[in-house]
Amino acid sequence: MRNDTATASAVLALTGGPANVRHVTHCLTRLRLTLADPAAVDEGALRALPGVLGVIGAGTPSLQVVLGPGVVDTVTAEVERQLAAGAGAVETGKGSGPTPRKGPLAAALRRIANVFVPLVPALIGCGILAGVNGLLTNAGWFPGLTPALAAIASGFMALIAVFVGYQTAKEFGGTPILGGAVAAVIVYPGVAKVTAFGVHLSPGQGGVLGALAAALLATRIEKWCRGRLPGALDVLFTPTVTVLVAGLATLYGLMYAAGAVATAIGTGANWLLTTTGPFAGLILGGLFLPLVMLGLHQALIPIHTTLIEQQGYTVLLPLLAMAGAGQVGGALAVYVRLRHDTTMRTTIRSALPAGLLGVGEPLIYGVSLPLGRPFITACVGGAAGGGFVGFFALLGEKVGATAIGPSGWALFPLLTGNQGPAPAIAIYAGGLLTAYAVGFAATFAFGFPRGTTRGTAPPVTHRTPAGSA
Fold it and tell me: Is the pTM of this model over 0.85?
């Protein structure tokens, strides 16, 4: 039975104790710790800890402990509780507080991701319910239940702009409820009576991109006011000025501009797949893992969300999910080739179930990256799977996901498309099998230096980079 309290205690002990932790947060799969002394980490013991799928960034102030979806939420909460109980001066939260120095682009993408990552559980839950409701509706089953399921599944998406506004203000140092209040203007039905640029606005126009921009503006206005007004006036005028100025800017500028960008994203995604389907699939499926290594994949989160809000599903996620399938195929080839390397084979056996369910970090950082070539050949497998799915998009059969977060086999309940869920599931399964097969074949044939035997792996001579997912 899983013991998250024991896992949290062990992680803290092996990372130098509570006094060594300056900041704690988490994403979908990783516990992220900012450390005062990176040398205090016992990396070997941490990797061997039951429940830990991988360790990234050892030796740097930014340590990431891969725990997997669901587990990371409860373990992080327990770590925060133990840190608070120990009276340590640590800042906690999903994405709040100081972070290690990063380049401007990486830092900006990380903060944008921090806005959207807390929304993923609701996107997953509502996405699955939407898929179930679609199946019931198409089959004609439980007609009295389907309207209720539709309401439950659609309610969050109807108000997602409010949640994005709330999270944006929270992440960028404003008052969260003011960010939500300004973003709520976007989904208010009464905006249909407002004319901007000679046309009437539509409720929801601009979507999550407009909400993000509106809340960012509100946060800047709020900070400007608080630095100039005395306490008595600040209580009354700061929230009023913030909501008024940011609200007017949202109605008469941001909604229109963000709506144009959102429309361009949807049009561009559709054009890309219907015009260059296999090529687009090859590129997206083959390059996604390097993007993850650089942290640039975070830029796709608001794009996925925009497509889901606009079309009901994102056509990009199933293509990108093929990258993880290529890793699975590559790892299986390593397992076969290095049949006498018990350490590597043990790592693969423990990491493979997570990889099949879309949690790829254990295979990436425990197998393919340390070996070098298998990372590249696994990307070839991902490209082949992406090309397979993209080919059907070129034929008019789109495959989409109603939520972001899961991949691998875990994505099946969220699949749908322009022809319904059944064709989408079949095409996605074909893509996975293609990625598995090509990743295996490419790694088996080209993933090892000339002269490497089926006995042991070549020595690892480099440190695994600290990527982010």
Answer: no
